[in-house]
Design a protein that fits this description.
about 425 residues; alpha/beta; UDP-N-acetylmuramoyl-L-alanine:D-glutamate ligase; Protein-Tyrosine Phosphatase, Chain A; six-stranded mixed beta sheet; about 15% strand; globular
Length: about 425
């Protein structure tokens, strides 16, 4: 009998042969396949659609926790995964089983009939089949890339459109200005649907308001008063998470389901879980590399995320007494490494760089170290993740933060035997 995990990987691998020769953002390829499958995307539970640059995962986690605290059954679609692909599809509260996932992928493969489709589009089709066939009260649908032409945006209506903070992101596809990027992400807004947005920089807010006006969506922006209404404890670390929790609460209130009470919102704030967002690692093979030094993990990979990480490090210093923090970092070559490191420049901090194993788009450890040095940090390129961890300890680390890539974060969680639940 074939191991189920191996069978999932084999089913996913088969989609590579359908990849279009030219990478063009379009919904047409997916819509043709969905029609063959009976248009499952047109018959889904009430949907909260989440786009943005930073905070999508955390905001989604808060929405889910609040809705589940209200007793609702919740589907969730997220990307990328950290350790196993199954993490991307949560059905009525449970990560999809290997057997169910293989079945949905096989049905999509049969429907393709040789047509071109991207890997992400194909797997989104499988997710829509699952969300259509398994009953639930709510679907939280997270955008993969951009908004307007993302595979998730084939839906024709939603209960609420959510825009998290917009920053520079995927500029080769979305444009070189905040206005262009915000306009693309606001492309998820639907005529007449409720919509909420995080506090945005002025040019992003203007672009989002313009898109909302075009569609007739009723957009409501987060305020400082909204954030002040969220009280500790929070299930996710960092002051920036209060804004994400407040945005989640605003989205659910805009939906207007009677089960969403103040008690459910506060309970969800405290119980929200999202791995690799300033997560302190438990005992395991990775933390053993650091001896008694506490090890934290964050998948943030752009300057906006780095600012949030820096604020959380400041909070930890106030709560636990100041500790000398060392970074162990790997990033993709497509990211703004110098901008990321510049936001983390603090006294005594050093960076030990490595590479994302098995990823063709990884930045080299040498290039990454040079980027950190250009941001004013002392940095050393290391031959492996294990070597970087050893070097950080030997340099006198009192706290180690592993950061810079969700792919790195996934590898670390797998190595430390901490599978996302």
């Amino acid at each position: 009998m074939i191991d189920a995990k191996v069978a999932v990987e084999a089913a996913l691998k088969r989609f590579e042969r359908f990849n279009p020769t030219e990478r063009v953002l379009t919904l047409d390829r997916l819509l043709v396949v969905l029609e063959t499958l009976g248009n499952p995307h047109l018959d889904l539970p009430p949907t909260i659609h989440v786009a943005g640059t930073n905070g999508k995962g955390s905001t989604t986690a808060f929405i889910r926790a609040m809705a589940e605290a209200a007793g609702l059954k919740v589907h969730v679609s997220t990307s990328p995964h950290l350790v196993r692909f199954n993490e991307r599809i949560r059905l009525a509260g449970e990560i999809i089983s290997d057997e169910a996932l293989i079945g949905y992928l096989s049905r999509v493969e049969e429907a393709l009939q040789g047509r071109d489709i991207t890997h992400f589009e194909a797997t989104q089709a499988a997710a829509f089949l699952a969300f259509h066939e398994v009953p639930a009260d709510l679907l939280i649908l997270e955008v993969g890339l951009g908004g307007r032409y993302d595979a998730s945006n084939v839906i024709r209506e939603c209960a609420v459109g959510v825009i998290t903070p917009v920053d520079f992101d995927h500029m080769q596809f979305l444009g070189n200005t905040i206005t262009q990027i915000a306009s693309d992400k606001a492309g998820i807004l639907k005529p007449g649907c409720a919509a909420v947005s995080a506090i945005q920089r002025p040019e992003a807010e203007a672009a989002i308001r313009l898109e909302a006006a075009k569609t007739g969506a009723d957009i409501d922006f987060l305020t400082s008063e909204d954030i002040a209404s969220i009280f500790p404890p929070l299930g996710l670390a960092g002051k920036h998470q209060f804004a994400n929790a407040a945005l989640a609460a605003k989205a659910l209130r805009a939906w207007g389901h009677p089960a969403i009470t103040d008690k459910a919102i506060l309970t969800g704030c405290a119980t929200a879980y999202w791995p690799a967002r300033m997560q302190r690692l438990a005992e395991g093979p990775v933390t053993a590399m650091a001896s008694d030094v506490p090890v934290w993990l964050d998948g943030g990979h752009n300057p906006h995320a780095a600012r949030a990480i820096a604020e959380t490090l400041d909070d930890l210093d106030r709560e636990e007494s100041p500790k000398r923090t060392m970074l162990v970092s790997a990033m993709l070559a497509t990211k703004d490494a110098a901008g990321f490191f510049a936001e983390l420049n603090r006294p005594g901090l050093e960076v030990f760089t490595t590479e994302v194993v098995g990823n063709d788009f990884t930045a080299s450890a040498k290039v990454l170290a040079e980027a950190a040095q250009s941001a004013g940090l002392k940095a050393t390129a290391c031959e492996s993740f294990e070597a970087a961890m050893r070097a950080a300890v030997e340099a006198g680390a009192e706290r180690i933060l592993i950061c810079g890539s969700l792919y790195l974060a996934g590898d670390v969680l797998g190595q430390n035997n901490e599978l996302p639940r």
